[in-house]
Amino acid sequence: MSTCPKKNGHEVLESVKNHPDLKHIPIIILTTSSSEWDILQAYREHCNSYIVKPVDAQEFFKITSVLEDFWIHTASIPNKKSSS
Q1: Which InterPro entries does the entry link to (predicted)?
Q2: What is d(CA 46, CA 48) in angstroms, rounded to the nearest whole number?
């Protein structure tokens, strides 16, 4: 049994953003890559935000808290019924 992923993150992002029922879902890239190519490619593929994970655990938890606050409590996104 192989543990290799069948798709990389860019391929998943592209699949989601090209799917008519999923393309409206906000996608936040949280990655270890700070490669300019990865950042540009993710935005070309319509990610909504690209965040490089900090190495420090405390900073990581701070970022996840900010993300949760923004996407759960601040941002307005359509629900499935209204987006159909």
Answers
A1: CheY-like_superfamily, Sig_transdc_resp-reg_receiver, TCS_response_regulator
A2: 6
Q: Residue written as tokens 């935000």?
A: 49
Q: Judge contact between 30 and 50, C-beta under 8 A.
A: no
CB distance 71 to 28 below 8 Å? yes
What is the CATH T-level fold of the domain 9-83, as seen in this structure?
Rossmann fold (3.40.50)
> How far apart (Å, rounded) are the C-alpha atoms in residues 76 and 13?
21
CA atoms of 33 and 15, how far apart (whole Å): 20
Where do the structural domains in the chain lie, given as residue ranges? 9-83
Residue with tokens 């543990």: 3
DSSP letter at 31 equals E
Model confidence, pTM: 0.76
Query: What 3-state DSSP class applies to 36?
Result: helix
Q: Which two tokens stand for residue 39?
A: 């950042």
